[in-house]
Structure formats: C-alpha cells, structure tokens
Amino acid sequence: MNLIQESLRDNGRILVIDDDISARESLRMVLKDRYEVVLASDAQQGLAYLQEESFDLVILDIKMPGMDGITTLKEIKKLSPETEVMLLTAYASLETARDAVRYGAFDYLMKPFDKDDLLNTVRKGLEKKFQSHTSKVEQEHLRIRASLLEEQIARAKSDLIAAFEGTINALLLAIDAKDSYTNAHSRRVSELTCAIARSLGLGSSVIEGLKHASLIHDIGKIGIDERILRKQGSLSIEEYEIMKKHPEIGVTIVSAVPFLEEAIPVILHHHERYDGRGYPRGLKGKDIPLSARIVAVADAIDAMLRSRPYRGNLPEELIKKELMDNAGTQFDPLVVEVVLSEKFSII
Ligand SMILES: [Fe+2]
Q: Is the dihedral of CA 152, 155, 161, 163 positive or negative?
C-alpha cells in the first residue's frame, strides 16, 4: 500500500453495495478522492467482503435482486456491528428506508443523489463511527483505571488492617511486659465479648469493633504502678483509687491513635455499673454504651473464672448465680439473660 492509499484508508473505508453499475461508478467517482472505496454488485458479494475485511461505512442500495436491503442490513450488523450503514433508496422505497433506521442504519439518501448531500451524509456516518470508537476506547480506559483504583483501595485497606492489628498487638505486648495476667485476661474477655455480642444478634462489623476494643479495654493499666497491679491480696483504699484511674489513662493512650477511637467507649466505661454506682463517670442503665455493658459482663466472668492472687476459682454455677444476683444492679439484665441462656457456654 502506498502513502496515498494509506492516507485514504485513514479517512475511512467505504463499501458500496449496489446492483446498478452506473450508481456504483458514480458513487466511486464522488468518493474516491477522499476515501478508499470498494464496490460490490450484490448483497452476497458485499457480505463476503465484510467477512474478509473491515469497513467504516457501507452504502447499501435498498432494492436489489436476491437479498433485499433490510435483510442485508441485518446481516451487516451481525457481521460487523460497528460499521455504519447508509441506505440508498428510490422514492418508491422511502418508507422501507425509514424503517431501516430502526435496524441500525444511521441515515438514507434518495436517488438520484446530490454530490454534496452524499459527501455530507458520508462524513456524518464516518464521524459517528469514529466517535463511537473513541468512546469505546475511553470506556475501556476508565474500566482499567477503575479496576486499578479498586486494587489500590484493597491494598490500602489490608495495610490499614495490618497497621491496626499491629498497633493493638504492640499495646498488648506493652501491658504484658508489665502485667502478664492482664494480657491473657484481655484476650479471654475479647472472646467472651464476641460470643455475647453474637448471641445478642449484633452485626459482624460491630462485633469486629468490639473484638478489638475489648482486647485493649484495660490498656490504661500500663500507667498503673506494677506494685499495685501485681499485689497479692486486696488493695487498700488508696491503691484502689489509683487502680480506678486506668479507664481514663487508657483513653489518653488510644486518643493518640485515630483508628482506635472506636474503642474509647469500652475503655472508658467498662467499670460503670448498671445502677450508676460504677466509675469513672457513674453512668446509669442505657446511658452506659452497650459495648461497655457487654465488656463489663465478660470482664467479670473472666475475673471470676480465673484464679486471682486474692481469690480462687469460682465454679460455673456460682458465677451464674453471681451474675443473676447482680443483674440490674452491677450488670445489664439483658446481657446477663443472654449469658445465662442454655445455648451460651461461659467456659
Ligand atoms: Fe478494667
């Protein structure tokens, strides 16, 4: 292919299908200077060309012996949906030509045609073809861009989760270095909290948040003197007052980490009592966040289950009785009811 042919190809490739040789030739004469033109004398030959090569535009005579224009149009659209089709029609077939637009022809031209009308209509068809091609390319670019963004978001999300869990583990290790009981206790409280939350029918994202919050509910103990934390036997009044500061110390610690903010209600309020006699705020009943009311019960169960320096293990029946006796005073009665149900195992 020489340079002239190449530039013709760039402007558009046109297939003319018309049984009338004089019509074919006059079309070729008008179009040949601007476009690459291929001539076919009937529908079969035209369709055969379309199977072999690609064309931007087909100029199709609507009334030909053999296959009629509408059937040919449908076949062209099946073979090459992106190729634009313009119909040539005599006055007698005008209605048919108008119908053909419904089957995908972009326009029609009456015979005998005016040279400028033909060139204008052909240009319109080619512009439509190239625009639709451009918009398909743009759509493909957008699709690729969207899938790249989705990948980036998924990666950022998994990095964030890793950072989140890494931070929680670091905090737990910090407390473990000071008081290994608190670390192990926190992990068990977290398991119990999740089990209670599931029994209450809470959603999975709420449960996931509770899992992390309960893991670090006692993080403020980092700021409590080790001699008080590890003391064998009961605490003095002064020591107990110091111990009671751990919820607020915990809030100070996690406030520095934006993605741990959701854990603050649990950290601050897990020692509130349902009757309002707890600490640090003395909140009452439903004023205490549900998350903290759940962790308070889980915290108490684990404290009773495990041997403490100042208290031996309590059998499960005694633990249940203790929960029952304190439902509505120390604990949220609804949370206790869930724990006492037959389906729930606290061990
Ligand atoms: Fe605590």
A: negative
Q: Which of 221, 231, 284, 321 is catalytic?
A: 221
* Domain span(s) for CATH 3.40.50.2300 in the chain: 3-138
pLDDT in tens, 195-241: 999 999 999 999 999 999 999 999 999 999 989 988 888 899 999 99
Q: What is the whole-number distance in angstroms between the Cα of residue 307 and the centre of ligand 1? A: 16
The answer to whether 186 touches 298, Cβ cutoff 8 Å, is: no
How far apart, in whole angstroms, are the C-alpha atoms of residue 59 and residue 319?
A: 90
How many CA atoms within 13 Å lie on the side-chain side of 47?
16
Residue intervals of the chain classified under CATH 1.10.3210.10 are 179-340
Distance from residue 270's CA to the centre of ligand 1 (Å): 6
CA of 107 to the centre of ligand 1 (A): 79
Decide if 284 is catalytic. Answer: no
Position 89 pLDDT exceeds 50: yes
pLDDT at 8 over 60: no
The mean pLDDT value for 275-302 works out to: 97
Q: Fold for domain 179-340? A: Hypothetical protein af1432 (1.10.3210)
d(CA 56, CA 51) in angstroms, rounded, equals 13
| Alpha helices, DSSP H, located in 244-289 | 246-255, 264-269
Record the pTM.
0.60
> 322: CA distance to ligand 1 center in Å?
19
Structural fold of domain 3-138: Rossmann fold (3.40.50)
Q: Is the pLDDT of residue 11 over 60?
A: yes
